[in-house]
TrEMBL record, chain A:
The keyword Cell membrane applies. Keywords: Amino-acid transport, Cell membrane, Membrane, Transmembrane, Transmembrane helix, Transport. Coiled coil: none annotated. The chain crosses the membrane at residues 40-63, 83-101, 113-131, 218-236. It is a multi-pass membrane protein. It comes from the Bacteria. This is Amino acid ABC transporter membrane protein 1, PAAT family.
TrEMBL record, chain B:
It comes from Tistlia consotensis USBA 355. CDD domains: PBP2_polar_AA. Keywords: Signal, Transport. This is Amino acid ABC transporter substrate-binding protein, PAAT family. GO terms for cellular component: extracellular region; outer membrane-bounded periplasmic space. Belongs to the bacterial solute-binding protein 3 family. Residues 1-31 form the signal peptide. Residues 42-262 form the Solute-binding protein family 3/N-terminal domain. SUPFAM superfamilies: Periplasmic binding protein-like II. PANTHER family: ABC TRANSPORTER GLUTAMINE-BINDING PROTEIN GLNH (PTHR30085:SF6), AMINO ACID ABC TRANSPORTER PERMEASE (PTHR30085). SMART domains: PBPb. GO terms for biological process: amino acid transport. Pfam families: SBP_bac_3.
Length: 250, 276
């Protein structure tokens, strides 16, 4: 598809009004902003998936009979929930990252094992995961004890009860809260710019530093996040509707 | 943040030093002329004290470096005593305007805007530009050697784009120099692109002994030393002084003395003036 009309329009807009949309007509800026957008999407999707897995597994371990398992899960939640995500990113990347084993990169230098993107995934997933554990716990606790007893009476073991009875019910109860947390997670991915992950804010920042078009790029950034988060919310709501059981929860 | 604290400390020190100067030498609130300096018997020069090796504090707390040495040259030529006042980028021109210093040699980039405020003496005595700092064993020779190489930078720096677009480097930009240097040290990038004068100051540190600044400096911007507006005779005197520094190779000599590889600008100026 030919987009040259749009580039001409943006260039004309700049000459006529001073509104400088470099990320439309300048191919270098356009490419890097597009790459930033894709990296944000990519980072968000991975973190969303991982944080949900952490939430489900964590909530199950929280109900363990072993006291140390429960304590470890509790410790994890406290650590990640009580520290700012930006501090976590710095801590993981610069402090823990430097303790990681190194490998020789293609330039013949020793480089730590995990790169900044991986650390962002780890840090953000565990951060959102800590909240997800608590969110799933709220759902699990809403499942009536009689229901669980009924499952036990039918011969389900603890894992089976969790998987086939508790989780499906709990999930429906906690979806709105989960929704909130996942929206927050997508927005928190912007913090990864602190450890030089080339996501959307990082790219936008460099663009407006080069062209001093802060208001224009800011505006784009804002709308891009409204769009991305809107998409997520729409997907979550569809999911909520699809999971709805007539007569349950309302 | 570190820089902010340092600036604040230096600012306070400078303010105290100035209070002292003001109490000893009242009536210096006008543009200082050459005659006034000679009558006063003291040349007050504003220099940096946090920019190794151009102006920094030695272990005794004395201000030393390339620029303080140049200031001493001026005082010697005038036959007056030298007094150094530490300045920072945000107050150096004001100090000159207010007559708190007679002369400013403080790593200042020469720009048309600044020339309107203070009398920047020509020719320029020094210059700085963009370069990279890399481990010696990386053996970079040309900017194009950076193609595909992860290069640390500072978010928002204007040369990031150039390094990426023209030379094909993979820019990994952090918020501040501390993060970028840590990343370089940890091996997350193979070079760090920044102002060459800053890199030179870092390379003077034994911590960075295995690193060097292998490329040719680009985007060179000249530095200007300045006197107050209207001090024409003083400016003319300083202009001769600078020509003489270039002619005799004084700048090159000081660079070598303070462990700085001779900069292309200093070499070029020496070539230009040595015949005169």
């Amino acid at each position: 598809m030919d987009w040259s009309w749009a580039f001409d329009w943006a260039r004309g807009l700049y000459h006529a009004t001073g509104i400088n949309l470099t990320f439309v007509y300048d191919s270098f800026d356009r490419d890097r902003l597009a790459r930033g957008f894709m990296n944000t999407v990519y980072l968000s999707l991975i973190c969303l998936a991982l944080s949900m897995v952490i939430g489900v597994v964590g909530a199950w371990l929280q109900g363990s009979k072993l006291v140390w398992t429960r304590r470890i899960v509790q410790g994890y939640i406290q650590f990640f929930r009580n520290t700012p995500p930006l501090v976590q990113l710095y801590f993981f990347f610069f402090a823990i990252g430097s303790l990681m084993p190194t490998h020789e990169n293609r330039f013949g230098f020793q480089e730590p094992m995990l790169d900044n993107f991986t650390w962002a995934v780890i840090s953000l997933s565990f951060f959102a995961g800590a909240f997800n554990v608590e969110i799933f716990r709220s759902g699990i606790e809403a499942v009536p004890a009689s229901t669980i007893e009924a499952a036990e009476a039918l011969g389900y073991n603890r894992l089976q009860t969790y998987r086939y009875v508790v989780l499906p019910l709990a999930f429906r109860v906690c979806l709105p809260a989960l929704n909130n947390n996942l929206v927050n997670l997508v927005k928190t991915t912007t913090l990864a710019y602190a450890i030089a992950v080339p996501e959307m804010l990082y790219m936008a920042n460099q663009i407006w530093s080069d062209s001093v078009n802060v208001p224009e790029t800011m505006t784009f950034l804002l709308f891009a996040y409204v769009f991305l988060v809107g998409l997520l919310v729409w997907a979550m709501h569809s999911w909520e509707r699809a999971l709805r059981m007539p007569g349950y929860g309302r | 943040m570190n820089k902010l604290i340092r600036s604040a400390v230096l600012g306070t020190t400078a303010a105290l030093a100035l209070a002292l100067v003001a109490s000893v030498a009242p009536g210096t609130a006008t543009a200082t002329t050459l005659k006034e300096v000679k009558d006063k018997g003291t040349l007050v020069v504003g220099v940096k004290a946090d920019y190794k090796p151009y102006g920094f504090l030695d272990s005794d707390g004395k201000i030393v470096g390339i620029e303080p040495t140049l200031a001493a040259d001026v005082a010697k030529k005038l036959g007056v005593k030298l007094e150094l006042v530490p300045v920072v980028s945000s107050n150096r021109m004001q100090f000159l305007e207010q007559g708190k210093i007679d002369l400013m040699i403080a790593t200042m980039t020469d720009t048309p805007e600044r020339e309107k405020v203070v009398e920047i003496v020509k020719p320029n005595y020094y210059s700085s530009g963009t370069n990279v700092m890399a481990p010696k064993k990386a053996k970079f020779k040309e900017w194009t050697d950076l193609k595909g190489v992860p290069v640390c930078g500072i978010q928002g720096a204007f040369y990031n784009r150039k390094t990426q677009e023209q030379f094909g480097a993979d820019i990994v930009a952090f918020k501040g120099t501390a993060e970028a240097l840590t990343a370089l040290k940890q091996g997350r990038c193979v070079a760090f692109v920044y102002d060459d004068s800053f890199l030179i100051s870092k390379l003077g540190d034994p911590e960075w002994a295995d690193y060097d600044m292998p490329l040719k400096t680009i985007d060179d911007a000249p530095w200007g030393l300045a006197v107050a507006k209207g001090a024409d005779k003083f400016a003319a005197f300083m202009s001769d002084m600078i020509k003489d520094w270039h002619k005799t190779g004084r700048i090159l000599e000081l660079e070598t003395k303070y462990g700085v590889k001779n900069t292309p600008f200093a070499l070029e100026m020496h070539e230009k003036y040595k015949g005169s």
